[in-house]
Each structure stands twice: as structure tokens, then as C-alpha cells.
């Protein structure tokens, strides 16, 4: 019998504990940015996990000390030049959010280094989000030159309040893991060296719980996100209109010039 995860290229899988599936985003040398391949895989993996009876809890993390630097700049360039790519990625972005919300299995995120854009969708929509103290959480949209739509318009105000959401989304300010915990943007903050052990501990506890009780608790709580569906759809449309606007070319050029192979406090994302 073919394993449903064998076809993935940018997502790697292992089973660190009974019933716990760990997903590792990997795009070597690019801070695990979501390119054409990864963006599509981040959409369909939640359907595969939902249908897999072996999975009682899942963890998502990044490789090589980074969670994800967001949408790959080559993907962004193609979105500005090719309408078919733009519409495909628009649908993927929509399905990514809804597939995460509707996945019945508990999800834990372990965020270290940069946590930006497309990767951040999974990081913040996880049921239990855990950030390293020195993680740098950045929405990234307005710096690129498009509206801060996608998941951000839905989940940021719900998690940390409208005032904080507007401040961080409109100014594209980085949020450390420590600050993210303080304002309620993430569930927990731990030292970087404890991140992956803590995420596994939480996932094991979830896997040991009642599947039915956890599933329906998650379903009920996620109704807050489902009720924001019209806001999400509008924000996503406004974001993708921006990829045909004048600001995105300037933002893309600026990011290409400034992005570095390492992630430091001086990096643009």
C-alpha cells in the first residue's frame, strides 16, 4: 500500500511517537520559503492528515533553524506576470486556510527563526502554537506591497486584538516569540533549545487524549474562524488584486536586493 506522504517533495515526514506525525518544511538555502511546489503541498497535506487513521496529532516545523520565510520570491514574480499562476495561487491560499481550519486532527506548530507569510498560516492556525523566544514572526504582506489579507485579517485580531493586529500588520513589524506570547498571538514561548521537545510533548499529550472530544472541541472553537469567512474572502481578493498593482514590483525589487542567506535582525523579513 502506497504511503500518502511519499509523493511530497518540500515536506518531510517522520513519526517521533505513536500517533504523532511530524511535518518538516524544507527548501534548503532559502529559509524554507514556499515555492510553487511547497505552496501546493501545504494545501493538500491537511486533507491527507485528516483522512489518515494513523494520525492522532501532528506537528509542523521548519528545517535548519528556520520555520519559513514566506512566499518564495520567484513564486511572487510569477504571480505578477502570469494570470494563470496568480489565480492558481489565490485558490491555493484560500484552500490552505480552510483545510487547516477543517482538519479534524490536533495540530501543533513549532516556530523558530523567521515565521513569515505562507508558512505563518500553518504556524498561527495551528491549535497549539509554540514559538522559540527569539523567533521572528512577520506577516510580510504590506512590505511586499499588497494588502495584509490571507489568514491575517481573520486570525490576528481574534488572537491579539484589533489594535495590536493593525499595528503589526500595517507596519509589518516583527514580533519576537516572547512578545507573541505576551500579546496572545501564540500559545506558548520557550527557549530555542526546548522548542522541539516541547512541541513533541504537547503532541504526545494530544495524541493520548480522546479523539472525539478533541475533534469536536476544535470544531466548535474554529467556528469563530468560520464565521469570519466573508472577511477572509474579501481580504484575500484585495491582497491578490495588489499583485497586479504598481507597489508590488517595487516591494519585490527591494526584497530581492535586501534578502540575505542568513536570518538576522537586519534582514527585511
TrEMBL record:
<dbReference type="InterPro" id="IPR014748">
    <property type="entry name" value="Enoyl-CoA_hydra_C"/>
</dbReference>
<dbReference type="GO" id="GO:0003824">
    <property type="term" value="F:catalytic activity"/>
</dbReference>
<dbReference type="Pfam" id="PF00378">
    <property type="entry name" value="ECH_1"/>
</dbReference>
<protein>
    <submittedName>
        <fullName>Enoyl-CoA hydratase</fullName>
    </submittedName>
</protein>
<comment type="similarity">
    <text>Belongs to the enoyl-CoA hydratase/isomerase family.</text>
</comment>
<dbReference type="InterPro" id="IPR001753">
    <property type="entry name" value="Enoyl-CoA_hydra/iso"/>
</dbReference>
<dbReference type="InterPro" id="IPR018376">
    <property type="entry name" value="Enoyl-CoA_hyd/isom_CS"/>
</dbReference>
<dbReference type="InterPro" id="IPR029045">
    <property type="entry name" value="ClpP/crotonase-like_dom_sf"/>
</dbReference>
